[in-house]
């Protein structure tokens, strides 16, 4: 009997650092977490991870991370790419990622007009030169 821990990997998801922080914050120990095994490689389980949301409903963390733009979809390892399971999972996860992209969340966030304009002004060489000239005249 082996007592070594098993690593749980979110199937079809490539986490960002912000996604890892979100998981640490939202996966709280007293709540029940459900693992749906998709495949296994050595000591790594590729799973769909669900967590209870109240009394009856639960939600899939894999999809939620993609929906929030805190992860990218990745190939689902351990499942043959032509199988019905692969395409069913791929479709679910891809749909969640597309929602984040359309709403501009997380990885897909677009800078506002104000942010783009201020960045352009900061990066403008002529304005930087004028700023340096004014700084020198103020100190003298």
TrEMBL record:
InterPro entries in the cross-refs: C3orf33-like, SNase_OB-fold_sf
PANTHER family, alphabetized: PROTEIN C3ORF33
Entry protein name: TNase-like domain-containing protein
Lineage: Eukaryota, Metazoa, Chordata, Craniata, Vertebrata
């Amino acid at each position: 009997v082996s007592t070594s821990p098993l690593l749980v990997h979110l199937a079809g998801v490539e986490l960002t650092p912000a996604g890892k922080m979100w998981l640490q914050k939202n996966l709280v120990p007293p709540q029940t977490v459900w693992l749906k095994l998709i495949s296994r490689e050595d000591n790594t389980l590729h799973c769909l991870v669900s967590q209870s949301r109240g009394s009856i409903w639960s939600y899939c963390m894999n999809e939620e991370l993609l929906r929030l733009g805190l992860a990218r979809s990745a190939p689902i390892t351990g499942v043959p790419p032509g199988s019905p399971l692969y395409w069913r999972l791929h479709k679910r996860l891809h749909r969640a990622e597309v929602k984040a992209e359309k709403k501009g969340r997380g990885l897909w966030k677009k800078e506002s007009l104000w942010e783009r304009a201020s960045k352009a002004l900061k990066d403008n060489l002529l304005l930087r030169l004028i700023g340096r000239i004014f700084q020198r005249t103020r100190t003298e």
